[in-house]
Design brief:
plasmid; binds iron/sulfur cluster; 3 domains; 19% strand; 13 helices; globular; nine-stranded mixed beta sheet; Formylmethanofuran dehydrogenase; Dimethylsulfoxide Reductase, domain 2; alpha/beta; 433 residues
């Protein structure tokens, strides 16, 4: 039977092209994202599971809460400022935010005399600890794509964390090689099925070995580079394979050693990184070689950059004494949360917040839909950088800050705005005597 009601208007999806993805640190800037009004997003141009999941998970906005009770934003900001104004040992952490958010978080931490750290600094410090101890020779993603003719992937396939690494930075033709050629070797790790498919047009060698002992394999390779007669087996890889690999590194014109430190097992993964860094150093006695440490989820690289340029020291720093005091052991957020009397936790990239010690006072600035183990003292929903508001985030190789644009308007404030409002609402500082 025909209806005399007017037909439903067909709502056409809005197509966003050349979208910059802010999530894993690779900085892909070629995404096509479809928006079904009012605010549902779907990635159409890539199978990257991280991008698909992150763009599709944008819950409806919800009001701020104080002690579990919905309140207007101004009231939540005032409650947060009241709690923080009385805190003696606050922690400003999580810091899953864009560059503006990081700057605002540092301003709040400076005003409070707080400790600052990022939720994912454990993985970052596996690299930073080595950089601080020994220095390193590192390269960029652009150098990998345009100059590298020999890529050594150390440990587990980084594509598990950075899904489009090979598609975006390894298989495109090199610009500055004549003739163009590229070879990939996996050392103590096996390529994922997707990686095998993407690399099918390149010569690939897999020396699977024991991924937990990739540092041993790197040390054996460094020894074989120095003196081929000293080639020995390591991590389940035969001496002959180590010797052959050393010969290929020697013949390379621009070798790159890539790793994702977050994928390394064990409490002392920084020692594995140190052996890889030494391998790169030793390889430079024979050819050009550089390391490529991969990191960058939740803009941890960008937040660390902001911390370093504003304070002169990286994350895991206390601002309690007037001058920044950096201690990567003492001021790791997992340790300091045990003694802090108030925690500001920022998680704008994903609706996840860790469980804190029982009774901890938490001010959470997080995505709507965040599930908490314990209701925080104050919860203020904030927008996601590159989805709800324009944002700058740093790429994994630390040299490029990318501008991600706004895609939807859920009416959510950005973390920087909320953090600045909290600073403005803090009780006046006592005049210096
Ligand atoms: S690889 Fe990383 S940056 Fe690229 S689309 Fe996937 S999540 Fe985004």
């Amino acid at each position: 039977m025909a209806s005399d009601r007017p037909p439903h208007p067909v709502v056409q999806p809005v197509v966003h092209r050349d979208v910059v993805c802010p999530f894993c640190g690779l900085g892909c800037d070629d995404l096509t994202v479809e928006e079904e009004p009012p605010a549902t997003l779907a990635v159409r141009s890539t199978d990257c599971p991280v991008a698909r999941e992150r763009y599709s998970r944008i819950p409806a906005p919800e009001p701020p809460r104080v002690a579990g009770v919905p309140v207007p934003l101004e009231e939540a900001v005032g409650a947060a400022a009241a709690v923080l104004g009385a805190a003696q040992a606050p922690l400003v952490a999580g810091l899953g935010t864009d560059i503006d958010g990081a700057r605002a978080a540092l301003a709040l931490a400076g005003r409070l005399g707080a400790v600052v750290d990022h939720a994912l600094s454990d993985g970052l410090y596996r690299n930073l600890a080595v950089l601080q101890r020994t220095g390193w020779i590192a390269t960029t993603l652009a150098e990998l794509r345009n100059r590298c003719d020999f890529l050594l992937v150390a440990g587990p396939d980084p594509a598990a964390l950075h899904p489009r690494l090979f598609e975006r930075w390894v298989t495109p033709a090199a610009t500055f090689q004549t003739p163009p050629s590229r070879e990939v070797v996996f050392l103590c790790g096996e390529p994922l099925d997707g990686t095998r498919a993407i690399l099918s047009g390149l010569p690939v060698t897999v020396l699977a070995g024991d991924s937990a002992r990739v540092g041993d394999a790197a040390a054996a390779l460094a020894a074989a580079l120095a003196d081929p007669s000293r080639a020995s087996g390591a991590a389940g890889i035969a001496a002959g394979d180590i010797a052959a690999l050393a010969e290929r590194v020697r013949k390379a014109r621009y070798a790159v050693v890539a790793w994702a430190a977050s994928a390394f097992d064990g409490a002392h993964a920084d020692l594995t990184v140190e052996r890889l860094v030494h391998l790169v150093r030793d390889a430079n006695r024979h050819t050009r070689c550089a390391g490529l440490p991969l990191a960058g989820y939740d803009n941890v690289v960008g937040v660390n950059q902001v911390c370093t340029w504003q304070l002169g020291v990286p994350l895991r720093t206390s601002l309690a004494g007037g001058a920044p005091l950096h201690d990567p052991h003492r001021f790791a957020w997992t340790r300091y949360a045990e003694v802090a009397d108030a925690v500001v936790w920022v998680s704008a990239f994903r609706p996840e917040v860790p469980a804190f010690p029982a009774g901890q006072t938490v001010i959470a600035l997080a995505s709507p839909g965040t599930a908490f183990a314990d209701e925080p003292a104050v919860f203020i929903p904030v927008g996601t950088p590159g989805i709800d508001h324009p944002a700058h985030v740093f790429r994994s190789d630390t040299v490029v800050a990318l501008r991600a644009r706004r895609l939807v308007d859920r009416g959510l404030p950005d973390a920087a705005t909320v953090l600045k409002a909290i600073v403005a609402a803090l009780p006046p500082e006592a005049p210096a005597c």
